[in-house]
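User: Just a sanity check before I run the rest of the batch. Below are the structure tokens for the first item. I only need the designed sequence back.
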């Protein structure tokens, strides 16, 4: 796989477009510029990799549009060495953006094929610190909790209670919640052992967050 100067130029223009759309975190924009998104797409879509669009990947899933990735990442307010849980590894693109930001990333994927492909991509990119799990994301990763930040990259009908409980005090959960046609992005901050602050933000449309695991045939 090649990452040419032309690709890097397209990423720079993409970052400029995201800034125009309201993304202001310079670290997030730098991470978008650093990651070769075309590596995560089927060859058929390579020429369009730096358009602000979602594209299909295996298992009837999608790679989110760059604006969505940047928006969720900005909401997380990540700092270096933050312990972050991602629900829905998918292509691994969002994971890579978070890893470049210097977090300690744990990521869960329920589709075994996507889990395996993402792990290989992390190796290609040299992102060897990402800890990947083939699990049911509804349950989170209780054995590694608590987490400073949790990001969910699929639309949930409701917020899984386990995820809220796995936040540190002061921790942030970013999750799209709603039906299959559209969801509202929620930013949930844990205030203490029992109380949470919930902010309801913009409309988005994600693939649904499903329970269980889907093994390779």
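Assistant: Here's the designed sequence for the first item:
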């Amino acid at each position: 796989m090649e990452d040419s100067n032309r690709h890097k130029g397209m990423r720079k223009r993409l970052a400029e477009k995201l800034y125009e759309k309201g993304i202001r975190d310079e670290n997030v924009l730098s991470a978008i510029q650093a990651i070769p998104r075309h590596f995560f797409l089927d060859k058929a879509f390579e020429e369009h990799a730096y358009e602000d669009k979602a594209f299909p990947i295996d298992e009837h899933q999608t790679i989110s549009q760059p604006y969505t990735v940047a928006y969720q990442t900005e909401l997380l307010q990540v700092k270096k060495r933050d312990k972050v849980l991602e629900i829905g590894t998918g292509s691994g693109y969002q994971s890579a953006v978070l890893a470049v930001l210097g977090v300690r990333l744990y990521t869960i994927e329920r589709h075994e094929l996507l889990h395996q492909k993402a792990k290989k991509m992390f190796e290609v990119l040299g992102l060897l610190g990402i800890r990947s799990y083939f699990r049911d994301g509804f349950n989170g990763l209780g054995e590694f909790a608590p987490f400073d930040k949790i990001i969910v990259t699929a639309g949930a009908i409701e917020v899984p209670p386990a995820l809220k409980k796995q936040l540190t005090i002061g921790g942030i959960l970013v999750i799209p919640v709603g039906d299959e046609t559209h969801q509202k992005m929620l930013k949930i901050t844990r205030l203490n052992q029992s109380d949470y602050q919930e902010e309801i933000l913009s409309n988005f449309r994600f693939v649904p967050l499903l329970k269980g695991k889907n093994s390779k045939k």
